[in-house]
Specification:
Helices cover 69% and strands 1% of the residues. With 319 residues, it is mainly α.
C-alpha cells in the first residue's frame, strides 16, 4: 500500500487529509519542475535574470524621497516583490492558478504605486488606500492616467506602450476570472485523480512553460514601469566609492543592477531607454552630484567599519 492509498483510506480529519494529500511528494514536484526549467525550458537564462531583478533590485528601485515615503513608502514595491516570489514557489509545486494570480497582483501594485506617486495625486488619497480605507484604483483607468505622466507620455507616443501592459493584465486576469475551460484547474493541471473529496496535485510542464513566459513578461513590464518612474536605476553609480557602508536608503543602482535592468528592457525599447539614461535632466544632475563628491579614503572606511561594529555590539547587549 503506497502513501496515497494510506491517506485515502485513513480516518483522519477531512481537512488534515486534504492538507496531507496536497503536500504529498511536494519535494519531488519541486525537483521535477526545476529539472524541466533547467533542462528543457528555452528561456531559462532570461528567467533567471528576471528573478535576479526581483531578488536584488526591485525594492531598491523605490525613490527614498519625501514624496514617496510620505505617501505609500516601500509597501507597493516590497509587496509586488513578495507576489513575484510566491509566483515562482506556487509554480514549482504545481499551484498554477495561484501563480498567475501572483503575477497579476504584482503588476497591478506597481501601476497603482506609480499612479499615487504623481505630484498631482493628493497624499491623503494615497494614504487612504494604504490604510485600506479606499479601494484599489481600477487598473485600466489608472493606466490611462499614467500614460500622460512625464516620461511615460514619450514612450506612449512612440510605441503605444500602455496597450502592451493592458494586454498582459487582461491575459493574467483570464486565469483568475476562469475565462473558459483552458484557464481552469482541470486543463492547467491536467487533473484526473479525485479521491476522498479532494484532487491529487499534478504537474503539467506545458503550463509551467507558459507560466515562466508570463513571469518574464510581467517582470519586464515592471522593470519598464520602474525605469520610467525612476530613471536613475538606468545608471550604474559608484555607490561604494562615495558612501562606503552608508549608501542611500534606496533609489540608486550599482553597475551590476543597472546591467540587469537593461537585460530586461524589451528589445524595441532599448534605444529609447539609452537616450533616457543619457539625456534625462534628473540623471544628469545625479551624475554631476556623484562626480562632485570625493571617494572615501581608507581611513574613512575604517571608521565606518568601527561604527558598524559598535552598532552591532550595542544590538547584542540590548537583546
Amino acid at each position: 500500500m503506497n502513501d496515497l492509498t494510506k491517506l485515502i483510506s485513513s480516518e483522519m480529519n477531512p481537512f488534515e487529509k486534504k492538507g496531507k494529500i496536497f503536500i504529498l511528494d511536494i519535494d519531488d514536484r519541486v525537483h521535477r519542475s526545476l529539472k524541466f526549467l533547467q533542462d528543457d525550458y528555452s528561456n531559462y537564462e532570461i528567467l533567471k535574470t528576471a528573478n535576479e531583478f526581483v531578488d536584488w533590485c526591485q525594492t531598491d528601485a523605490t525613490r527614498s524621497d519625501f514624496q514617496t515615503l510620505s505617501k505609500v513608502g516601500m509597501y507597493p514595491n516590497t509587496e509586488s516583490e513578495i507576489e513575484l516570489d510566491y509566483a515562482i514557489k506556487h509554480a514549482l509545486i504545481g499551484s498554477y492558478k495561484s501563480a498567475y494570480g501572483n503575477l497579476r497582483r504584482a503588476l497591478e501594485l506597481i501601476v497603482v504605486f506609480i499612479y499615487f506617486m504623481h505630484e498631482k495625486i493628493a497624499k491623503e488619497k494615497a494614504i487612504s488606500w494604504l490604510s485600506a480605507k479606499n479601494d484599489t484604483p481600477s487598473f485600466s483607468r489608472t493606466l490611462k492616467k499614467i500614460k500622460l505622466y512625464e516620461r511615460f507620455s514619450e514612450i506612449e507616443n512612440k510605441f503605444e506602450w500602455s496597450n502592451q501592459v493592458q494586454q498582459l493584465f487582461w491575459e493574467l486576469s483570464d486565469f483568475g476570472h476562469n475565462k473558459g475551460q483552458k484557464n481552469g484547474y482541470r486543463d492547467l493541471n491536467k487533473l484526473n485523480f479525485h479521491a476522498s473529496h479532494t484532487f491529487v496535485p499534478n504537474l503539467n510542464f506545458e503550463t509551467l512553460e507558459s507560466f515562466a513566459n508570463f513571469y518574464i513578461k510581467t517582470v519586464k513590464e515592471i522593470v519598464t514601469l520602474l525605469a520610467l518612474y525612476n530613471p536613475k536605476i538606468l545608471l550604474g553609480l559608484p555607490i561604494d566609492e562615495k558612501f562606503g557602508l552608508n549608501p542611500p536608503f534606496s533609489g540608486f543602482f550599482y553597475e551590476g543592477q543597472a546591467e540587469i535592468v537593461f537585460k530586461l528592457i524589451p528589445e524595441n525599447y532599448q534605444e529609447h531607454f539609452k537616450m533616457l539614461r543619457d539625456n534625462d535632466q534628473e540623471n544628469k544632475d545625479i551624475i554631476e552630484w556623484f562626480e562632485s563628491m570625493p571617494d572615501l579614503t581608507e581611513e574613512q572606511i575604517r571608521e565606518q567599519v568601527k561604527e558598524q561594529d559598535k552598532f552591532f555590539e550595542q544590538m547584542k547587549s540590548d537583546t
